[in-house]
Amino acid sequence: MESSANIRRILTRLETLCPSGFAIAFHIRYARPDFLFQTYSKTWIDIYSQSGMVMHDPIVRWGFENTGTIRWSELAGDDPMGVLEKSKPHGLVYGFACAVESDGSRSVAGCARADREYTDAEIDEIAADVQVLHDETAKKGSLSEATREELRQMSVRFTHP
């Protein structure tokens, strides 16, 4: 349970560091993640899902094509469907994308706030946390069934508060 306690601790810290929420899809294979944690407002999650925005999201597109981090303001010119603009009334005004990959497994995160751009130091700190979460959740084969179930429950709690 040490892995799940560490994951829980980092996710709790990310809730503070990302005051308008975050979405992190871990180990995306065939467009489906093993785990999805998101804390954006339910209203935005519903609009995003019902409108099929994932297919047009510049954050997702960038995350599939790159690793590292990029501010959303740098992606605004590559958003023909206006996903970033549509998210602003829901508090997702400033943010950044983070993508990590190891052993053929990719995880993508979007982190948001309403008040200002993230500093480079904040981006580095959150990206380091995303990397740790990616590594911890990659242990899927070596995690006990109880730990996997706890992670699934955490995913549900974060995605459907």
Report on the structure:
This protein has helices spanning 2-17, 42-50, 58-65, 72-75, 83-87, 120-137, 145-159, and strands at 21-28, 35-38, 68-71, 94-102, 105-113. The chain has 7 helices and 5 strands, in the order αββααβααββαα. Strand 4 and strand 5 form a beta hairpin. Helix 1 (2-17) runs parallel beside helix 7. The protein has 161 residues and is an alpha+beta fold. Helices cover 47% and strands 21% of the residues. The chain has a single domain, classed as Transcription factor LuxR-like, autoinducer-binding domain (Beta-Lactamase, 2-Layer Sandwich), CATH 3.30.450.
What would you report as the Rg, rounded to the nearest angstrom? 15 Å
The CATH superfamily label reads Transcription factor LuxR-like, autoinducer-binding domain
**Helix share bin:** 40-55%
CATH class: Alpha Beta
The multimeric state of the shown protein is single chain
- The end-to-end distance, rounded to whole angstroms, is 23 Å
What class do helices, strands and sheet pairing give? alpha+beta
How is the CATH topology named? Answer: Beta-Lactamase
The CATH architecture category equals 2-Layer Sandwich
Task: Give the number of DSSP strands.
Answer: 5
Strands side by side in the biggest sheet? 2-1-5-4-3
Strand content: 15-25%
How many individual helices? Answer: 7
Shape: globular
Average pLDDT reading = 89
Listing every helix as H and every strand as E from the N terminus to the C terminus, the arrangement reads: HEEHHEHHEEHH
